[in-house]
Amino acid sequence: MNRIDRRRGVADETPRNEQATPPGDGARPVPDPAPDPAPDVVEEGLTSDDEAASVPAGEPVPDVPGAGGGARPGDVAPDAVEDADAAGDAAVRTRVKGAKGARVARARIPSARNARARLADAKAARSEAIRARPGGPGALVPRPAEPEEPAEPVPDPAHDVEQRKLEAGADHRFPFGRPGLPLGRAHPFVFGFTAALGVITAWLLVKAAVSAKSVLIMIVVALFLAIGLNPAVERLKRLGLSRGWAVAAVFFGVLLFLTGFVASLIPPLAEQVADLSKNLPDYINQLRTNPRIARWDQHYHLLQQAQDKINDSKFQQDAARYALDVGKQALTGTFQTLTVLILTLYFLGSLPQIKTFFYQLAPRSRRARVALLGDEILERIGGYVAGQFTIAFIAGVTSYIFLEILGVPYALALALIVAVTDLIPLVGATIGAAVVCLVAFLTGTAEGIAAIVFYVVYQQVENYLVYPRVMKRTVDVQPAVTVVAALIGGTLLGVVGALLAIPTAAAISLIIREVLVPRQESL
Predict the structure, then answer these.
(1) First and final CA of the chain: distance in angstroms?
(2) pLDDT tens, residue by residue, 169-187
(3) What InterPro entries does the record point to (predicted)?
(4) What CA–CA distances, in Å, run from 180 to 9, 175, 184?
C-alpha cells in the first residue's frame, strides 16, 4: 500500500473508532467538527516545506530556507516536493487524542490532499516548461553549446582511387560503378542532338533527291504511264484475257506507236539534211545574184564575213562540239526512253500488288476508306491519260487529213508531231500548229495561210467541244485550277511537270472534297 492509501486508511479509522465507542464507558461522544473557514491554511505545526508545498500550481515558488537560494520565476523547487510528501505522512501517522486532536487531524488531512494535488499540477507544469526549453530534456538551465569539431574533408575522387569506388558504388557486379539514369527526352543535350540530326538528315535527303532528279522523274513518268494504261488492261481482262496477256497486248501497242513515230520522223529528217548539203552552193549563188543581197553585200560585206566565219577554226570547233552534244542528248534520250518503257512494263504488271502494299500502310480501321479513295484517284488518273491520248489521236488524224488535202510534204510526220505535242496541256497544241504552219509556208504562201486558219479554228473546237466532253467524265477539275496547275508543274519540272500537274490537281481536289470538307462540317 502506498503512502496515500495508508494515510486514507488511518484517517478513515479514527472517526469510525471514536463513533463506535459506547456511551457507557464514561467518554462523551465527540461532535462532528465544524467546517474550517480557511481549509487551504495549515495550522502552526506546518514547516516552511509544507508552506512551499501548499503553493497553487502554476505560481512562482517562494524562497525556501535550506533549498540553496531562491528559484527563478516559473520554476518548481524539487526539494519542496519531497518535504511536502514527508510532512503529509507525518501528519497522518500522528496519534491524536481527544476532540482537539481529532479536529487538528481532520484539518490537516484535507490540507495534505490539496497539497498533493497542487504538487501534481506543479510537476506537470515543470515537465511542460522543461520540454519547451531548447536545452533538451531534463535540463532546467540550458547548457552552452559545445563547439563542434571541424569535419574531415572528403577526398577528391579524381586523386583518391578508394573514394572513386566508394562514390561510384563499385562492386563485383559493377566494377566501374553503377550506371546512372539515362538522359530523358527533355534533356537539352538530347533535344539539341535530335534536332541537329533531323536537320542533317533532311539536308542529306534533299541533296540525294536533287542528285537523283532524273531517275526520280523517270520513275514518276513510268508510274504515271502505268496508271494511265491500266484501264485498257482492265478492259482486256473483262474480255477474257489474263492480266499477263492483257499487259503484253497493251505494251505491244505502245511499242508500235513509238516505232511508227520514229520511223515517220527519221526519213524526212535524213532526206532534208542530204538535200541541204547538196543544194548549199546553189543557195549561196542565189544569194549573190539577188540584187538586194548584192547591194547589202557591197555596203556591209555580209557574204565575206559569213565565209570568214565558216573558215574560222574556232567556229568549226564549236560546230563539232555542238554536234557532239546533240549526239549525246540523242543517246541520253534514247536510254531514258527505254528505261521508262521497261519501268512502265514492270509497274503495269505489278500494279495490283503495289496498290495493296500502299493500302496496308494505312491503319486497319481506316484501310477500307483509304482503299476506296485510292482506287478513285487511280481511276481518275487513268481516265485523264486515256482522255489525253484520245484528244491527241483526234488532233493527229485531223492534221494528217488536212495536210494531205493541202499537199504539204511529210504529212504523216507532221501529224505525229501535232499528236505528241498535243499531250502537253495549254501550249502543246500551239507548238505543233506552229511547226506545221512553218513547213506549210516553206511550201507556199497560200498553204501557210490556209494552215494558220485551219489550226485557229481547230483550237477553238478542241478547247470548247472536244476537251470538255472528254475530261468532264474523268478528272472533273475547274478550268482555272487546270491552268494554275499546269503553270506550276511546268515551272517546276518542265514538260513532265505540265503533264503530271492536272491529274495531281484532280487527286488533291478529291481528297479535299471527301476528307477535309466533311471534317470541317462536323466541327
Answers:
(1) 90
(2) 888 888 888 887 776 777 7
(3) AI-2E-like
(4) 76, 14, 12
